[in-house]
Specification:
Blueprint lengths: L3 E4 L15 E2 L6 H15 L1 H5 L16 E5 L4 H13 L4 E4 L1 H7 L10 E5 L4 E2 L2 H14 L3 E4 L1 E7 L17 E7 L6 E5 L3 E3 L5 H6 L13 E12 L10 E3 L5 E4 L5 E5 L17 H15 L7 E13 L6 E4 L6 E5 L5 H18 L13 H5 L10
Parallel strand pairs: 1-7, 3-13, 11-18
Antiparallel strand pairs: 2-6, 3-5, 4-5, 8-9, 9-10, 12-15, 12-16, 13-14, 14-15, 17-18
Helix pairs in contact: 1-8
């Protein structure tokens, strides 16, 4: 196959990948997400077997295997325990800690209102997203994949060849051409194609809305960009090298950033307080008023932290059930989707990419059965809720 990757931001300055905190975990509540995490962890552990290029230096994604630590209040303890049981059944190594055990292992934590904690013992932590992104790009290029700087703004389908006088409107169609808007130009470049993969992240839904497709062939895809802040701070007396990525009972999270008393963290706002995703500006009051008080209550040393910087990135938020939409489009026969992962797209990218590749080449899933993540659940109104969205 001849493969073309269309990227509207070749600098990746606003890409969700490089603006994330780079976490990977096994602690999800859906079997499909756990399985994808387990594959991705294996992929990253053996990254040079998959993405290494002869005569080039080995890839080091700077993986820090410090685990994730989820804290649960009394009303959520039973749910957390059941979720950990599922994770263990899927082969994940996760420990349950009582408040006493939690305090013994991490004495810097205030365990007030914590009834139970889950701690990932293996294949959890964080890595450098930029290194992984470039490793994928270089490997793809070495295999003959072509890249194009531009933006997809339209599809021409086989339905366009059917005039009303010739018969009823078709119920399915195929994409014949993709219109690519070239940078610094008014021109569109049509590209003939046999297969299209929509992996446009936070803009996957908007892409289908603006591509000029009739609604009967392209029902709305409920994926929207949601702005998320990441804050960086310094605290010389903060948690040490064994510090995991901690997710508080309140939803606030943080992790270590290096070994010099620096940390990264943030918190997703409630639905009714979502910030305007029109740009990537940061509301610093959000840290002072919402994030810091929660962190300082859980980690008393953070009462004297010093904010160093901040940035914002996008979640490709699936408003239907906060889970990825993966697989074939229900109406466009040669369109495949890989978007809507709502914050866990980076860690599931190797597994999602393999899954789409199997559909394209083999016509079916072979390694993991991910059919439940397909578009069908959107049509049928059957939510596939993931409890572990941070």
């Amino acid at each position: 196959m001849r493969v073309l990757v269309v990227e509207r931001d070749p600098t990746y300055s606003q890409a969700s990948t490089v603006l994330s905190v780079g976490g990977i975990r096994q602690q999800f509540s859906l079997p499909e997400n756990i399985r994808m995490s387990r594959f991705s962890a294996s992929f990253l552990r053996n990254i040079n077997e998959h993405l290494g290029i002869p005569n080039e230096p080995p890839i080091d994604i700077q993986f820090q295997p410090s685990g994730y630590l989820f804290l649960a209040p009394p009303q959520s303890a039973a749910t957390l325990e059941a979720t950990v049981q599922l994770q263990r059944e899927e082969g994940a190594q996760v420990a349950l800690l009582s408040p006493t055990q939690l305090k013994e292992k991490f004495p810097w934590i205030d365990t007030e209102d914590v009834a139970l904690a889950s701690y990932g013992l293996e294949d959890e932590g964080w890595f450098d997203p930029w290194t992984l992104l470039n490793a994928f790009r270089r490997k793809a290029t070495s295999l003959g994949v072509q890249s194009c700087s531009g933006e997809v703004r339209g599809f021409i389908t086989s339905a366009a060849d059917v005039m009303p006088l010739q018969g009823p409107t078709p119920t399915t169609a195929r994409i014949k051409y993709v219109h690519i808007h070239m940078p610094d130009s008014l021109e569109y470049q049509p590209v003939a194609c046999a297969i299209v993969v929509n992996a446009a992240g936070a803009w996957a839904g908007k892409l289908l809305e603006t591509a000029g497709l009739p609604e009967e062939l392209c029902p709305p895809l409920p994926i929207q960009p949601r702005k998320r802040y990441v804050f960086s701070w310094h605290c010389p007396d903060g948690p040490g090298f064994s510090c995991p990525l901690l997710v508080d009972t309140t939803g606030a999270y943080f992790r270590r950033d290096g070994i010099a008393g620096n940390y990264l963290g943030g918190m997703s706002p409630p639905e009714e307080e979502e910030p305007d995703p029109g740009d990537l500006s940061v509301d610093h009051d959000y840290f002072q008023e919402q994030v810091w008080p929660r962190l300082a209550r859980r980690v008393p040393a953070f009462e004297s932290l010093r904010l160093r910087g901040s940035w914002a990135g996008y979640y490709d938020h699936n408003t239907f059930d906060r889970n990825g939409v993966l697989g074939p489009h229900p109406k466009l026969e040669n369109l495949f989707l890989a978007a809507g992962f709502s914050g866990h797209g980076l860690q599931h990218a190797p597994a999602a990419g393999r899954a789409v590749a199997e559909l394209v080449v083999k016509g079916q899933y072979e390694s993991l059965d991910l059919r439940r993540l397909g578009w069908g659940r959107l049509v049928e109104g059957e939510r596939l809720e993931e409890d572990g969205v941070v």
